[in-house]
Amino acid sequence: MIWLLSLREWQRRPLRMSISTLGVALAVAALWSLLAFGRGYRDGVQDELDHLGAHVLLAPKGCPYDATSLALHGASWPCYLKAAYLNQVRAVPGVAKAAPVLMNAFIDDSGAQTVYLGVDSNLLALKGGWHLSGRFPTFRGDLLLGADVARKNDWHIGQTVSLPGLNGARGTVSGILAPSQSADDGFIYTRLSDAQTWFQRRGELTHVLVRLRDPDQLDDVVAQLRSCGAGLEMNVVPLSHIFHSIEGLVNATRALLLCIVMVALLVAGAGVSNTLMIAVSERTREIGVMRALGAKHGEIFRVFWAQALQLCGVGAIAGVSIGWTAARETDAWLRAQLPYSPHNSMVHSDWPTTLACILGAMLLGTMAGGLPAWRASCLTPSVAMRARGERA
Q1: Structural domain boundaries of the chain?
Q2: If I label 358, which of 94, 222, 262, 344 is the partner at 20 to 30 A Cα–Cα?
């Protein structure tokens, strides 16, 4: 009965109630998107670094964030390292494996990108999660394809194919990687010497992936890499430091956005409270009739408190639905704003986040409905019947 009485306001004032509900829905949608982004971004960046398999990235001088993004996502590099630096890197104590890479990319007329990576067998020591059919590139012209490349072009092991963007160059598919849900699925791997010939970069590299014997010695090894002969010519990028730096920047931005969302929630709660205060004023005589017929203070309180919960509950469900529906658009917008974006979706939709937003909205309704419900419950029958409100 209490819930049915609280629903009467939706029938009597649908526009007012809908506007209050919309305010709650927009605030909850913003909160859901912010929470989903925080978890999705952190997991996405960590997953990409794990797939890279390295503790340290050695790249040409420049912005470390740009170098990390290029190494992870694939692109043509603006400058190069000398391959001769590799011996100095491998001589540093604490370096377990150093895998040289020459990366280049071509974009066709349709805007599709083909990314080539010239590598050697040291890369396998870094890619422990790889599962491949066939063999790693060993002979001249061998190609190891990412899962997406093989599927898109319908290439198979043993097939000789023309290489996009390389003016008639051909190669033989020696292996295909199992899907990894990472940028590796979109790369074509070949021997380092073949890539240096195709791209006319003999004796040059784009970057080196370094794995340490003991990750706890990261700072010591990084210091030695920076002080070695080639250290002055390279950018030594500890990937864990990059992760924590990116996470710190994003957390600072999230904190600011969270403050804005909290203000939006407070404004939405104030709107709910104001809507119910107006409803109490308009229904004063109705409350008087209910009190005269024997309704207790607590019953009157629960009628308006239930109305606040209904309003915020409907708003929460609508807001979460908006967040889920707009997740792809939110992800695209965030990629355009952030200097570094992981390959996977940055808006991580999950039920714990959804449940937290709904419970938070219900708590907002509890607080917003408290004052109007208390005011309604305190009205005495004699005062309420004399009031000039709507007739019961």
Answers
A1: 2-47+245-386, 53-237
A2: 344
